[in-house]
Amino acid sequence: MGQGLASVLTIGALAWSATLFIVPFALTSRDPRLVAAAAAVYSGAGLICHQRAERSFHLAGVQQPVCARCTGLYVSGAAGALVAALWRRPRVPRRTRSVLALTAVPTALTVALEFVGVVHPSNTVRALCALPLGGAGAWVFIQSLRAEAADERRFEEVRGDAL
């Protein structure tokens, strides 16, 4: 089950990342179905992102459905999931929490400095600072699912040999 779930989640992450770049163009379409589908994506994305125009990338003059920081997280998450899915052997880092905490530092730092008014990073900086966290988080998650599936297969093999 873990391997199948890892595959589904990786495909979903890749599809979502692609969607973030497609829907601004769909929103300007003359096809009402495309516009309605794009509007649904923006509405759903609004549940998880503030969608502030000044903190979002714009494509063809249209704001993306999530802010620059979320774009960085999603794109790097899709890349991290893909790398983990293609990795030869499932491997979960021994210090997973430390890896995730370390990769969260750039994002946390920009959020904190922005919150107190010390800096106002560009959207590019916001997205770039989110890349380590998104990539590492997805990699750890997908690798964990794959490792669990491998453990289950080994258990079934041992159990089958014992019978």
Structure description:
The chain has 5 helices and 2 strands, in the order ααββααα. The chain has 163 residues and is mainly α. It has one domain (2-148). The longest helix has 40 residues, at 123-162. It is flat, with a radius of gyration of 19 Å.
Report helical residue fraction: over 70%
Query: Strand portion, in percent?
Result: under 5%
Helix count equals 5
Shape: flat
Major sheet strand order: 1-2
How would you classify the helix and strand content by structural class? mainly alpha
Number of strands: 2
Task: Give start-end ranges of low-pLDDT stretches.
Answer: none
Order of helices and strands: HHEEHHH
The major sheet is characterized as: 2 strands, antiparallel
Whole-number mean pLDDT: 93
Rg is 19 Å
How many separate structural domains?
Answer: 1
CA distance, first residue to last residue: 23 Å
